[in-house]
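**Backbone shape codes:**
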Amino acid sequence: MTVGGTILVTLLGIGAELMRRQMKAIGEVADNAQEARDQVSNTHSTNLRDDLDAVASRIDRVLALQEMHSTEIAGLRADIAHERRERLAVAERLDDHVAATAA
């Protein structure tokens, strides 16, 4: 075998090894691409964006109702405080009346 033949065989061996490595890398990329596709593909009958918009809308309604309930509770607290002040005032007048009639 000549030196040229030896170099040619060596270059072919190196080329075959490089192609084998490249095919292995391409296979890994294909596997990763398939895994990524499996993670992001939509298997639902509805669009994810529409689903998220519906959830956001429901959350907005819950927050609005919560704000309304907070306002109603604040009003009830004010009513109770007013009733308590009135009850204490009546109790004080009654105590004064009882003390005045007992004397």
